[in-house]
Amino acid sequence: MRLDIAKCRRRMHREGIGFLTKTLPRLAKAFKRALTGEVSLDATGFSKVPGSQLPRFLGGLFKSVFTLDGWVLPHPCVDCIATIIRVTELWYKLRLPHDEEQEQEVIEKFERTDDEILDISLRLSAIAESLSCDNPLGRQSHDGLPRGQVIARARARVTRVFSSFNPLDIYPSHGPGAVSTKEQLWDKWNWTTISPRIAQTYPIDEYFYTSQGHVCDHLQAIQNLKINESSAKVILVPKDSRGPRLISCEPLDFQWIQQGLSRAIVKRLETHPLTRESVRFTNQLPNQLGALLGSKDGRYATLDLAEASDRITVGLVHLLFGGTGLLDPLLNCRSLSTELPSGKIKYLNKYAPMGSALCFPVLATCVWAILTAGAPDAYTRKRIHVYGDDVIVPKAYALNAIELLESFGLKVNRDKSYIKGFFRESCGTEAFRGQVVTPIRFRTVWSSHRCPHSYSSWVAYANALYDKKYFHSYRYIVDKLIKVYGGIPDQASFRGCPVLREVPEAYRPKRKRINKTLQRVEVKAWTLQPVVLQREIDGWMMLLRFFAEGNRSPSHEHDITGRHSRCRELPYNMEVALFGPFLTDRAPFSVRRYTKRKTVRLVQRWVEYNPTGTFKPERTINLSLPRVY
């Protein structure tokens, strides 16, 4: 271990942070691929142990996993596998500033992918047209396209799911993100431009205004509306050490309708008998358990789609949704073009890039329909699970599934898809032989100044290290946090703020008081609060916002099973860290209040304190499978 630490220091001195964010993750990628048993370990960039293919770096651990030739052992040490993954991927997701070269590479890849899919989109559209005309052309196989029987079954399954679906029965709303037309949160309710395609499907007076009175009072504004097309706009947001993520911001009117239609489609998919056990958007647990079971006995394979949102073509949507009444609304609610950072307008061959609210519902529907249509029997169909671009399929069907998906223009990431061996990964869970080996990945850069994002992130990292029994690392991070932020609460005695697993009494917050109103002891501690803005808008617009958002506020929202759900996008401990003050004493929904997205403040407030330490720890889900001896 001393030699490995010294090696890290020397290479970091020579190569910089890239050794942690690029070189080590490259070794992790080769390591995971070698665990499948398909190839031997390729430790390029590291000196080898004499007479073997194993690297000197972490050599003691690699010897417990591989033979000297680099092939996985029949019974490798799972603890060594977990340690290698955690060491090599610890800094893989670190969000570092990206340069212009990385930005240009992402934009060029976006354009290149869109140009590549044009041919397959046109051919799929031709088949869709022939099917609608009852022409046998679409029932045959042509130039590497999928078999006609698979096309017919996939189309029929989508038609069955949406047979009684009414795309006009939606509740539009705005999303939390930016829009290409650059309206602020409080300006999103003033309509200035509406697409003629949207107005054709969703009449302006019915879907953009509250009532007939609202229409009458704003008749002049409606007459002055610009009925023309608006382009989406590409922006680059920080992702990880590899570079930025490309997001296409939708125009205001498109986002308004897309959000409502997306929620209606998601609800249908999660409740319909054909899809409710296979397609999910709010619960990753079935895919995670599928990865665990697949790693235990090899019965399931995990597939990962590359550039998934950029490879769902307009032709594929036309082909699969052509038998439903949903096709026209789907096509009318998509942006035809997007503006690149250079100012260039790019006309899109893909259905919708990442950023559209319809991107993932349509993606999941297409993937499910293709895979179930090509499945050989009912047993296989029932064991297909789709969560976005993460797919679980029976191992015997995996190769055929890959061939089918790629015949429809999709692309499977072979490096992140695991069929052979006993390593599996899906929805953030990595497993080997039925044991979780998911690494801890640092994302937020440490700050020596008080920063809300740094504080909440590094408290979470410390707790994750504690749970995996890395106590020295836990204490190191806690010492650094205390030097910057002072006393930090522990989970046994405090509630309503970010807490650590265990903190000595001397390093806990000191300022205490008795709250006579609530009859409890309170201590002043650091909490995170969202930045709230107060803005006045027109009364009719405030009423429209109440109808669109008031009844869906976190305090009233329920999931499809009827169970209460505060914020399904966030785990409860993250929700407490970000919105703790509003969970216990939540104010009624206000149409004048706006919360700035991804903006929080670090403030000190009085939180509940129980000196006896009887608070129950956060409830967590145990993903580990029982060992069989």
Separation of the first and last Cα atoms: 32 Å
Give the spatial strand order of the biggest sheet.
Answer: 4-3-6-7
Mean pLDDT: 86
For the CA atoms, what is the radius of gyration? 27 Å
Strand count = 16
Number of domains: 3
How much helical structure, as a percent, in the residues?
25-40%
**Main β-sheet: number of strands, strand sense, barrel status?**
4 strands, mixed
The secondary structure category is alpha+beta
Which residue ranges are poorly predicted, with pLDDT under 50 across at least 5 consecutive positions? 137-143, 553-585
| Proportion of strand residues | 5-15%
Shape: globular
Descriptive account of the structure:
This protein is of the alpha+beta class. Helix content is 39%, strand content 14%. It has 22 helices and 16 strands. It is globular and about 75 Å long. Mean pLDDT is 86; it is low at 137-143 and 553-585.
Write the layout of secondary structure elements.
Blueprint: H1 2-15, H2 18-35, H3 59-62, H4 78-88, H5 100-116, H6 118-132, H7 148-161, E1 193-194, H8 196-201, H9 204-207, H10 212-217, H11 219-223, E2 226-227, E3 232-240, E4 243-249, H12 252-271, H13 285-297, E5 300-304, H14 314-320, H15 327-332, E6 337-339, E7 345-347, H16 359-374, H17 378-382, E8 385-387, E9 390-394, H18 398-407, E10 423-426, E11 429-432, E12 435-436, H19 452-467, H20 471-485, E13 494-495, E14 512-515, E15 520-534, H21 539-549, H22 572-584, E16 593-609
Parallel strand pairs: 1-2, 3-6
Antiparallel strand pairs: 3-4, 5-9, 6-7, 8-9, 10-11, 11-12, 13-16, 14-15, 15-16
Helix pairs in contact: 2-4, 6-14, 7-16, 16-18, 19-20
